[in-house]
Amino acid sequence: MRKKPTIAVIVGAGRGQRFGGDIPKQYCSINGEPVLRHTLRVFCEHTEIDHVQPIIHPDDINLFREAADNLNVLNPTWGGKNRQCSVFLGLKSIAKLSPARVLIHDAARPFVTPSLISRTLREIDHFPGAIPALLVNDTLKIVSEIEGVREIKETVPRDHVWQAQTPQAFDFKSILAAHEAAVDCSLTDDAAVAEQFGLKVAIVEGSLKNIKITTTEDLQRAQATNYEYKTGLGFDVHAFTPGDQITLCGITIPHDRALAGHSDADVGLHAATDAVLGAISEGDIGDHFPPTDPQWLNASSDQFLRYAIHKLHQRGGSLVNLDITVICETPKIGPYRARMRQRIAEIIGTNILNINVKATTTERLGFTGRQEGIAAQAITSIRLLTSISH
């Protein structure tokens, strides 16, 4: 029996009144990419999540398409008049997929980690709902304001007071029923909806890195996040063998010979995979996909590169650029370069502007010059999240 899926609903329909600015905060840039793209990528890459359902404002469709380019997400659902309404519309839109579990996450929390997602999901094996939260450390005050003058009225005991975060995980049928019952309310998070319906909601330890971008100061803080940049190199060679086509940089090219190899012998993607694995100190392609393992016989090499990119994203990293050089006398690479770049961008889930493919010969010297095979080398730069100042 096919298991019921787990779906992440990413709530990004707000207009950000407290934020200001020309565009909503979820489409502002952090280190060259929209906030929403950082958020979506984490959930798209998580092994326990089957689908990602964005909820957006219809006026933002063009901004959304740019932010979600090449990411495997469902078609967006339009949001409603407030957050609670938007989530309810999102839940109803995925009901046809019959999910068992749902995660509801704010689009403006781009630094959520895979481990936080996993431990929140684990808790709903025992409860109808679970949320990450942080124990409040600061003293809390209730304040009145009269004619611009603020005055402390009461100090709130902070014992047992926690600050809620997202993603908030729920049994799907339970949270959908809770939202249906609370349709006329205006609650600020889904745990409050669940509580009103009588559902027990567990707390898991949240993360200080899991900040929500609400003001321009928050965005500046996020922009100041410390990153480290690393470089990886890859190189691969395959010999020609009888055949009528080759696979190179993810596309099939008619040729008077094929390339010999245990998998599809795509030297371009093999070099790219080694470059990414090298940048994150994860060995090489042979460590993860041994040529002695029969399951990789004739395997398509796009899965090797996707795996390496997944390992990169697990580290909280992203690819900055990838540059591949194909070394051969034949076939001519020029007519296929554009398709190669597009295909590699699709595999990685990045903008085509981050991908380059070029070719050279060895002036008829050596094994490539004698047309005995094809070689490829790749270099990549990656960005790894190290910490956030708190």
Query: Which architecture of the largest domain per CATH?
Result: Alpha-Beta Complex
The number of distinct helices, counting runs of at least 4 residues, comes to 12
Seen as an oligomer or otherwise, the chain set is: single chain
Strand content: 25-35%
Provide the gyration radius in Å: 25 Å
Structural class: alpha/beta
Q: Give the fraction of residues assigned to helices.
A: 25-40%
Q: So, the CATH homologous superfamily of the largest domain?
A: Spore Coat Polysaccharide Biosynthesis Protein SpsA, Chain A
Low-confidence stretches: none
Domain count: 2
Strand tally is 19
- CATH fold name of the largest domain, please? Spore Coat Polysaccharide Biosynthesis Protein SpsA, Chain A
Largest sheet: 8 strands, mixed
Q: What is the rounded distance between the termini?
A: 46 Å
Which term fits the overall shape? elongated
Under the CATH scheme, which class of the largest domain? Alpha Beta
The overall average pLDDT, rounded, is 92
Notes on the structure:
The protein has 390 residues and is α/β, with parallel strands linked by helices. It folds into 2 domains: 6-137 and 163-223, Spore Coat Polysaccharide Biosynthesis Protein SpsA, Chain A (Alpha-Beta Complex); 226-387, 2-Layer Sandwich (60s Ribosomal Protein L30, Chain: A), CATH 3.30.1330. Helices cover 28% and strands 31% of the residues. The protein is built from 12 helices and 19 strands. The chain has helices at 35-45, 61-67, 83-94, 114-123, 172-181, 190-196, 216-223, 267-279, 285-288, 302-314, 337-348, 366-369; strands at 6-12, 29-30, 33-34, 51-56, 77-78, 101-106, 129-135, 140-146, 149-156, 162-164, 168-171, 201-205, 226-242, 245-248, 251-254, 257-259, 317-327, 355-360, 373-387. The strands form 5 sheets. Strands 1, 4, 5, 6, 7, 10, 11 and 12 form an 8-stranded mixed sheet that branches. Strands 16-13-19-17-18 form a 5-stranded mixed sheet. Strand 8 and strand 9 (149-156) form a beta hairpin. Helix 3 (83-94) crosses helix 5, helix 5 (172-181) packs across helix 6 and helix 8 (267-279) packs parallel to helix 10. The relative contact order is 0.12.
